[in-house]
Amino acid sequence: MSPAERSLFIVFTGHGKGKTTAALGVLLRAWGHGLRVAMISFVKAKSGNWGEQKAARKMGVEVIASGRGFTWLSKDLQEDKTLAEDGWRLAQERISSGLYDAVILDELTYPLSYGWLPLPEVIDFLVNRPRGVSIIVTGRDAPQPLIDAADLVTEMREVKHPFEAGVKALPGIDF
Q1: Would you list the DSSP string of 59-121?
Q2: According to a count of CB atoms within 10 Å of the terminal CB, is the N or C end of the chain lower?
Q3: How many C-beta atoms surround the C-beta of residue 158 within 10 A?
């Protein structure tokens, strides 16, 4: 099997910090090897201008924010569900397009856990994706069927976090 035909389905989950950062590390490595990469964020607000979005523009990498921000603070869960469905359609298009070797589905676990996207259908699509497209899913509380379907699962576990000492998130380090 040629390298173009091989791919992995990876999940970065857990309550520790670093899930998106790990996925972005893979994105950077893949891009450095000349692979075509994209990322769709299911929670980050479309209106945001996060560090990874700034870097991606400079690199010519597609990074799409399809959410409204912290969904657990939402006053309109139906709109959040609709945005998640829109993000999933974008993800399916990117994965099926033949234009990408790796696609990151950042924070996909949240709409799956909230029941906004049909878990069996999402897993079926990801498992039966076109050959040669690696998938990376991030987010807390990955559902067990997603974990079972993945080739590689890493759980981030918080040991110590500066937020507990009152230290706010740092631009460029935390976002």
Answers
A1: HT-EEEEEE-S-GGG-S-HHHHHHHHHHHHHHHHHHHHSSS-SEEEEETTHHHHHTTSS-HHH
A2: N
A3: 12
Query: Rounded to the nearest 10 degrees, what angle do helices 19-32 and 51-59 cross at?
Result: 10
Q: What separation in angstroms does the CA of 57 have from each of 5, 64, 87? A: 28, 11, 19
Sign, CA dihedral 63-67-68-70, equals: negative
Side chain identity, residue 36:
R
According to DSSP, residue 175 is labeled: -
CA 32 – CA 173 distance, rounded (Å): 21
What pLDDT digit, counting tens, does each position of 35-55 carry?
A: 999 999 998 777 777 888 889
Question: Using CA atoms, how far apart are residues 161 and 158, in angstroms rounded to an integer?
Answer: 7
- Using one digit for the tens of pLDDT, what is the confidence trace for 49-91? 788 888 989 999 999 988 776 665 667 778 888 989 999 999 9
